[in-house]
Amino acid sequence: METLTTKTACGKNDQESLTPEEMEQRLYAAVDSHKFEESRFYKLVVKPKCPPALIARWAWAVHASATTFCAMLADLVETAPTTAARLTLLENLMEEEGIFLHASHGLVAKPEAKHCALSLRLAQACSQELEAPQGASDTIVKANRYIQEGRWLETVSFILVGQELRFARTSLLMYEVLKKKGFSEWDLAFLTVHGEADERHGREAIELVVDHALTREEQELALQAAEAGARHFFNTYN
Description:
Blueprint: E1 5-7, E2 13-15, H1 20-32, H2 40-45, H3 52-79, H4 83-96, E3 99-102, E4 106-109, H5 115-126, H6 138-148, H7 152-180, H8 189-212, H9 216-236
Antiparallel strand pairs: 1-2, 3-4
InterPro entries: Haem_Oase-like_multi-hlx, PqqC-like
Protein name: PqqC-like protein
Keywords: Oxidoreductase
């Protein structure tokens, strides 16, 4: 694709902003450049004789991330630049916290539906002997650093596009792997939920980025953050 340019008053060439369609395609390409199924972890875990301890460590690490994700997401809600963005992210947060809108009852909280409750169920099914790592994961630390620096758009790109969207595919693949190893639907509820929810949340995040990255500079920063998020996600499995 040829690079579009436009002349400024000073006679310099500046790149024009990507169209929404082009930006969306570039974001998906950034995420798809790092595939979970190509990681060393996946190639090990699909083997019939994969050590149970490897699966257990993965499950507890997933639970650790789930327990710290909501606080980071709340910061994104608080710092969202528009009401529409705040609402989109708040709906994501409510789902993570097991809160649903009921036509005749208002907001209904279901503690058992909280995603961190589902991740704990998964981790305990994999091994009762381990505990979740203490403190925020490296992913959350990086995302929080973006937020503290006022880089809201890059945070959305890094963690919601680059990682949450990637985790949707990961969840589906790990569901198939663990199902074949004898885990029950009850054990794997976290994965079935995230196979659908994270795909939806990731697509919503792409819409947020497309809507708020208006200049070519903003677009390039968002694209770099999305690719960095997907690469970081892949490297944790590689």
